[in-house]
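Researcher: Let's do a round of design. I'm pasting the structure tokens now; please hold your answer until I've finished.
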């Protein structure tokens, strides 16, 4: 983990409220695992807490990394106003990242993303594909208007879409796509990032599969395991006192390791 002032080399809007930003700096040399995140200081004196954003792509040769974020509150709105040449104070990479070593060439992985949980799944899918693993993507969005990165996923493998209003792909959430798919085949591993409801559904559908990896989202402060702002409860804890820290023990856990 490093802290560095990184330089923005591009920023573009992909869809309403969705932005893609590419940064350059030595910190990219530290980035290995898909699913890790960077913790970015908002360049405004009154905003002390950093904002956690997943790494969407790592390009070591070019020494760049890309993030995709949705503007929510003041912090992400400040990010959206930045442009090429501006700098950001970045800490990272943080978190454990997805386990891609549990699979070998020829096996099949389901890669599931919902809404703003989709960005880290791209680097994951790229790395799985490089290992010779067959990837099937299940991507869920609110509507056609906010669909982004669809061509990039299609270029890596079979990609199925769902939208809440049915304006693109199947109507409803990704659960509908998954229920249909599992009637025909069972994947060797399942990776998911998205809203808690989606993660619960993924855990349920694949309850017999030991390789179900879920990326959790919790509000964070330090981002490196020191403040306990980001805890999540664990199963079979009668005292209700045991927990895991999403920032450094996660954000990725096997479905059996956490209570959603
Ligand atoms: P505000 O609501 O003004 O934020 C106030 C405070 O709450 C800040 O400290 C902020 O960090 C925290 N906060 C608010 N919403 C969230 C949230 N959903 N999760 C965690 N903290 C929150 N968003 C993306 O758009 N793209 C990503 O790739 C992405 N990856 C993430 C990876 C991880 C591990 C986590 C925990 C969150 C991720 N998020 C991502 C969510 C993103 O961190 C929040 O949307 C962002 O912090 C909101 O900041 P804000 O100032 O705009 O909103
Ligand atoms: Fe401080 Fe996780 S954010 S321990």
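Researcher: That's everything. Go ahead.
Model: Designed sequence:
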């Amino acid at each position: 983990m490093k802290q560095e002032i990184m330089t923005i080399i591009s920023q573009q809007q992909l869809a309403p409220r969705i932005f893609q930003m590419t940064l350059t700096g030595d910190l990219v040399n530290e980035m290995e695992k898909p699913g890790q995140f960077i913790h970015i200081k908002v360049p405004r004196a009154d905003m002390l807490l950093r904002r956690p954003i997943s790494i969407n792509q790592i390009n070591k040769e070019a020494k760049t990394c890309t993030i995709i974020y949705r503007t929510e509150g003041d912090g992400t709105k400040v990010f959206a106003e930045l442009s090429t040449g501006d700098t950001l104070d970045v800490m990272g990479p943080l978190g454990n990242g997805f386990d891609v070593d549990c699979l070998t060439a020829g096996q099949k992985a389901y890669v599931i993303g919902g809404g703003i949980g989709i960005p880290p799944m791209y680097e994951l899918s790229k790395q799985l594909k490089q290992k010779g693993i067959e990837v099937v993507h299940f991507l869920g969005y609110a509507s056609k208007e906010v669909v982004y990165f669809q061509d990039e996923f299609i270029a890596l493998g079979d990609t199925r879409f769902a939208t809440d209003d049915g304006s693109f792909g199947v109507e409803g959430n990704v659960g509908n796509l998954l229920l249909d798919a599992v009637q025909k085949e069972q994947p060797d591993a399942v990776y998911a990032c998205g809203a808690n409801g989606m993660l619960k559904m993924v855990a349920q559908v694949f309850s017999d599969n030991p390789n179900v990896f879920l990326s959790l989202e919790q509000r964070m402060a330090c981002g490196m395991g020191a403040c306990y702002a980001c805890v999540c409860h664990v199963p079979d804890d009668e005292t209700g006192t045991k927990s895991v820290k999403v920032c450094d023990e996660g954000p990725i856990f096997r479905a059996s390791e956490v209570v959603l």
